[in-house]
Amino acid sequence: MSYALYYYPGNVSLLPHMMLCEIGAAFELRLVDRAKNAQKSAEYLRLNPNGRIPVLLDGDLMLFETAAIAMHLADRHPEAGLAPAFGARERAQFYKWVVHLTNTPQAEYRAWFYPEEHVADPAAAPAVKEAARQRLEAMFARIAAQLDGREWLLESGFSAADLFLFMLVRWGRAMPHPPRDVPSLGEHAERVPARPAVQAALNAEGIAAPFV
Ligand SMILES: N[C@@H](CCC(=O)N[C@@H](CS)C(=O)NCC(=O)O)C(=O)O
Question: Domains in the chain and their CATH numbers?
Answer without folding.
Answer: 3-80 (3.40.30.10), 89-195 (1.20.1050.10)
